[in-house]
Amino acid sequence: MNPDSHMNPDDYQQAWQAHSSQTRVIIDADLLRKEAQRDQISFRSAIFWRDFCEIGIALLMIPLWFYLGAVTSSPWTWYLTVPVLVWMAGFMLVYRMRHKQKPSQPDEPLLICVKRSVTEVEDQIWLLRNVFWWYLLPPSISIMAFFAQVSWESRSEGWLAALMFFIGLSIFLFALYSFIYYLNKRYVHLQLEPRRQELLTLITSLRDETNGEGVDDRVSLPGLPFAQDRLPTSCTSPAKIAIGLFTIVVIMLFLVYMINMAITSNSSHLTSEGYPKISPFAGVRWQESQPEVKLGEEWFKLESLNNVPADEIIAFSQRTYEDLWRKRFEEDLVELLTRMGYPPEDTVTLVVQPLTSTQTQVRVNVPMTKANRRAIREEARKRKHDTSEP
């Protein structure tokens, strides 16, 4: 043997690759068709249960959203998510109806079965690549509007604190939705795209066989197209899909609920520190939800204070302080008006109506004094003591 004729390891490797590239694996066409149909059924089942869970959870959240909004006395921006949930469920239903594929027949040609599988995979690739526009962006807008409103209503604690509160909530929402978007893109890159390439390789091989020998009972596949390494197929269990989606929903609901409860609790239990304990009224009494105020020794129906209608003041107090709304109006009027954005001075302008007349009166420069507020507080304590006696 001539020593000069020895081949390098690289030469052996190139020769092996050239030989393997020409390898053709012969597979029974009927077995391959059955395997392709089983794979197609498994893929359809996973997609069906995923869509079913998403649509079902979106529809179930609609009444839950109304319930939480009523329980927590949420602002109107809370309910912007309701049409978003309707949109998400409707989009999924319409998309599935428009891209619904016919079920495979046992005796249909293998090429048609594989083409149908490619179409289904490409539909899912489009859906997940555009998940930001139809699934993430709409709820982001409604939730950000809610975050902006609750931050705005907490501005009495300081503009900087309210701004940081809004920024913190926005960062959390951005991080959560970025993670969801990443998971969808990762699934497309590691699962759907390799699956699509394998199916396209199979279609090319089937076309070559049809155009060439025309053999129907055997199919030759060049280069083992299904032997590529990739991640294991994601679990298609309906229960696990539902649990995953439900967990994301619970996290979002818990976050929004706790934010709303924190805002409500903060508004309901403040001790009014930093707000002057003064009032322009010598006394306050109620006719249902309408206040009657005492100026001097005479009682009047309050129409407005510093051009702010009394009904608007009462509505804000009810919405902000819930069961304590009357107490806040009587004893913490400065705080109440400040939170509304109308901080009063030492004197105010009142528009009142005598109880014995229909004509209104304008009282200007009515002083706000600690004595008035103290008298109102003592009267409230007296009423509480009288009602608590047997």
Percent of residues in beta strands: 5-15%
Radius of gyration, whole Å: 36 Å
Main sheet attributes: strand count, strand direction, barrel closure: 6 strands, antiparallel
Number of domains: 2
- Kindly report the average pLDDT value: 77
Q: Provide the low-confidence segments as ranges.
A: 1-5, 212-216, 222-236, 265-272
Number of strands: 8
Question: In percent, how helical is the residue content?
Answer: 55-70%
DSSP summary: helix tally: 11
Order of helices and strands: HEHHHHHEHEEEEHHHEEH
The first-to-last residue Cα distance is 121 Å
**What's the shape?**
rod-shaped
What structural category do the secondary elements indicate? alpha+beta
Transmembrane segments: 52-70, 76-95, 132-152, 158-183, 241-263
Keywords: Membrane, Transmembrane, Transmembrane helix
Protein name: MraY-like glycosyltransferase
How would you describe this protein?
The chain is α+β, with helices and mostly antiparallel strands and 390 residues long. It has two domains: 28-208, no CATH class; 283-387, no CATH class. The protein is built from eleven helices and eight strands. It has helices spanning 9-21, 29-71, 81-98, 110-129, 131-153, 159-211, 238-268, 310-321, 325-331, 333-340, 370-388, and strands at 24-28, 218-222, 283-287, 290-295, 298-305, 308-309, 347-354, 361-367. Helix 2 (29-71) packs parallel to helix 4, helix 4 (110-129) packs antiparallel against helix 6 (159-211) and helix 5 (131-153) runs antiparallel to helix 6 (159-211). Residues 1-5, 212-216, 222-236 and 265-272 have low confidence and may be disordered.
